[in-house]
């Protein structure tokens, strides 16, 4: 599997437009976490940003790396510290709101269905050839609504499905209300960022990981 960041913009009509993504299966998890921290701390207004990540063994390790990097660099003038309030909390199996989403056999079909509806209706826009290649191979194998890759990988699609999950969260709904009432919310706050193995041009309000 690959590490994937999907960076999206909330448009004035509350539709979601994916602005870019990062994908790698060769860069170490610690370095991927550092890339994300530097992207957010240097180029994104954290008052206009939300992050969702999947709670699994790898996701928990990734979040730990982000937390460690943030704590280690918080005292530096140009630190890579992250405001933990930007992480979306979901109701997980333990019925306690903790950062990240835990996909299960019960909720995955729901989010797959939501994403399918929102993507087909144009509420979510993602114009990427690699995304479409994965999407063509993303099928309901067991005929139970829980989609997966027939062959190969579905990393970008699964990261994108979190957009639909995030939109159902209380934090996202409050976020939309907040930016809608802000007279300056339409001003772009993210500049062109490039470096390493990726180049992104972002003018969004929030990010989905």
Polypeptide structure, described:
Helices cover 37% and strands 18% of the residues. The chain contains 6 helices and 10 strands, in the order E-E-H-H-E-E-H-E-H-E-E-H-H-E-E-E. The strands form 4 sheets. It has a 4-stranded mixed beta sheet, sandwiched between helices. Strands 3-4 form a two-stranded antiparallel sheet. The chain has a two-stranded antiparallel sheet with strand order 6-7. Helix 1 (29-43) packs across helix 2 (57-73) and helix 3 crosses helix 5.
Summarize the structure.
This protein has 6 helices and 10 strands.
Low-confidence stretches: 183-209
* Gross morphology: globular
Q: What is Rg?
A: 17 Å
Chain-averaged pLDDT: 79
Structural class: alpha+beta
Strand content: 15-25%
**Spatial sequence of strands, sheet with the most strands:** 5-2-1-10
The string of secondary-structure elements, in order, is: EEHHEEHEHEEHHEEE
Main β-sheet: number of strands, strand sense, barrel status? 4 strands, mixed
Calculate the terminal CA-CA distance, rounded to whole Å: 15 Å
> Helical amount among residues, as a percent range?
25-40%
User: What's the count of strands?
Assistant: 10
Annotation field: number of helices? 6
